[in-house]
Every structure is written in C-alpha cells, then in structure tokens.
Amino acid sequence: MRIATVKTNQGEETAIRTASGFIPVSAINTQHNKNWATDLWSILQLEQLPKINTWYRAGGKELLETAIEGVISNENAHFGPLYRHPSKIWGIGLNYVEHAGDLSEKAPTLAPASFAKFDTTLIGPGDEICIPLQSERTTAEAELGIVFGKKCKNIEEANWLDVVAGFTTLLDMTAEDLLAPNPRYLTRSKNFDTFFSFGPELVTPDEIDDVLKLNVATVLNGAIHAQNTVSNMTFPPPFLVSFHTKVATMLPGDIICTGTPRAAKISDGDIAECRIDGFMPLINPVIDLKINK
Questions:
Q1: How far apart are CA 102 and CA 259, in angstroms?
Q2: What region, left, alpha or beta, does residue 155 occupy, with left being phi > 0 and alpha being psi -120 to 50 degrees?
Q3: Residue-number span of the structural domain to which 219 is assigned
Q4: What is the DSSP letter of 209?
Q5: H or E element: which one contains 163?
Q6: Residue 139 and residue 162 in one domain
Q7: Fewer beta carbons under 10 A from the terminal one: N or C of the chain?
Q8: Does residue 42 sit in the same domain as residue 93?
C-alpha cells in the first residue's frame, strides 16, 4: 500500500494512492463503513495501519481502483509532509563511504554516526528549502527514510520489519561551512528551519521486494548528482533499526534517515530532489535568505 498526505478543503488528510489518483481515508470511511483515523499521525499512534493494509490487500485495492467518487486526480493532488511532529528523527552520517569524501572525513566503521534533528526543521513536498543567513555552503542530501509503526525496544535485526510502518523519500540539509571547523557543530549545522523534507508517500514493506536493492539518488535541477544502492551502506536498514532501538525506545512515527549517496551544494533558485526506485520523487525548491530577505 502507498499512502500520502494530501491537502484538501478539510486540511491535510491521509489518502491511499491508486492508479487514477488518491482517495482520502475519510472517503473510504464513508463509502466502506470504516472508522479509521484520517491523518497519518493518528493512524500510526493508534496502530491502525496494519488493519488498513490488511483490508487493502484482501480486496480493498480492487474497490479503490474502480472508485469514482472522492478520487483526487494525480494532476490535482498537492501534498503535505506525511505528518509534522515525530518524537524522534535519527540522522545517519556518512553511511555510504563515498559521502565521506564530501567532508574530508573517514567513514565510521564501528557504529553509525547518529545525530538528532528537530521537528521544527520539517517541511513537505514543494515547500521551500531556505539557505540560512549564516551559511555560504548548504547541501541537500537524498535519503531513504524508515518510519516506525509501533513502540519498540531492543529489536533484533531478524525482526526489524515487524516494527517498520514503511519507507519514504527524504531530503536532509546541512550547513557544511558551519560544520567544517569542528564536528561538534553538527547539531547546529543540521537543524535550521526547513532542513528536513519528507514525503510525499509512505510505502509499506510488502510493496518492496528487497529494500537492499533500492537505488537512492540525489538530484539537482533534474540531473543526478549521485546515486548508490542501499546494499552499499556501511550500516544497512536492519542494523540501523536494531541498533537504535537498543539506544532509545522508538515510538510510532519516529524516523531513521539512513544516509545519502552524496550531498549536493544548493543555491538560490535550485530544485533539489530525492529519487528512489519505485517511489514518487520528493521535490523542493531552494531559496537563499541572504538574497530573499
């Protein structure tokens, strides 16, 4: 199942993606006598996503594909972030060896280079990434995101998918010039407003044959800046899920950003993009606050 947060007259609503467009859960509730929450955050907190997906895979998909009422066409769909206030966003630095060269650093080998991002950095598809006044070199980094679907602790790698709601596209930004003088400046360089975009869709694990075979690409102005395969990560998704649940209790809606193939320097007027095989692309325009005061 593929779900998105679409903007409607009622605000931001969760919708299921079909071949012809997006059907809000509110319309599904009305047409099929369901009582599911209508925003993804609540769906995750109530752990309703498995129930919705079970209905979808047991005939709901066919019902939605033939639906006429309530469909938002692909051309008319406008997206918000999947949700706005995750309790935790874990970033993973330099998880592809090639990315270490961007910052003239050695890739970690003993444990992931984890860092935290605040929910005030969060934007959605089409929202502007703002290069801050303090930075002359800000980069955008395409990443595969892992979204947790349940409260969990001390999960083993073999069971990692049991706690994963799905996967999404991410753009993680860094003020690299502020980080360069000292790695202890990482938190500041990662947490300016608009420095985390995610969406437009959450893809449930059953839609993906093999996560490790996905290609992730950082795209700038329509051209691929860098691309790599998830299997080339130093610390792959099963390890990241297990490792971080052994650090902190993970809650529904918590996110792990799994690392980027390479960061692209962004400038005023650029279009930054995350592309992952089989996912809708995540696209954000860039403005420089030093120019657009």
A1: 13
A2: beta
A3: 89-288
A4: S
A5: none
A6: yes
A7: C
A8: no
Question: What sign results for the dihedral spanned by CA atoms 244, 248, 274, 141?
Answer: negative
Q: Distance (Å, rounded) from C-alpha 172 to C-alpha 189?
A: 11
In a domain, 293, yes or no: no
Closest to 250 in 3D by CA, of 133, 183, 152 = 152
Q: Are 44 and 37 in contact (CB under 8 A)?
A: no
Rounded distance, CA 283 to CA 216, Å? 14
The CATH number of whichever domain residue 257 belongs to comes to 3.90.850.10
Distance in angstroms (rounded) separating the CA atoms of residues 55 and 63: 10
Q: Is 186 helix (H, G, I), strand (E, B) or coil?
A: helix
Query: Could you write out the three-class secondary structure of 67-136?
Result: CCCCCEEHHHCCECCCCCCCCCEEEEECCCHHHHHHHCCCCCCCCCEEEEECHHHEECCCCCEEECCCCC
Same domain for 203 and 257, yes or no, is yes
Distance between CA atoms of residues 140 and 266, nearest Å: 7
Q: Is the pLDDT of residue 102 over 60?
A: no
What are the backbone dihedrals phi and psi of residue 75, each rounded to the nearest 5 degrees, phi first?
Answer: -70, -30
Among 76, 109, 142, residue at a domain's last position: 76
Asked if pLDDT for residue 160 goes beyond 90, the answer is yes
Whether 128 and 238 share a structural domain: yes
Using CA atoms, how far apart are residues 129 and 267, in angstroms rounded to an integer? 10
| pLDDT, average across residues 279-286 | 98
Q: What is the pTM of this model?
A: 0.95
Beta bridge partners of 256: 90, 146
Q: Are strands 282-288 and 129-131 parallel, antiparallel or unpaired?
A: parallel
Are residues 137 and 248 both part of a single domain?
A: yes
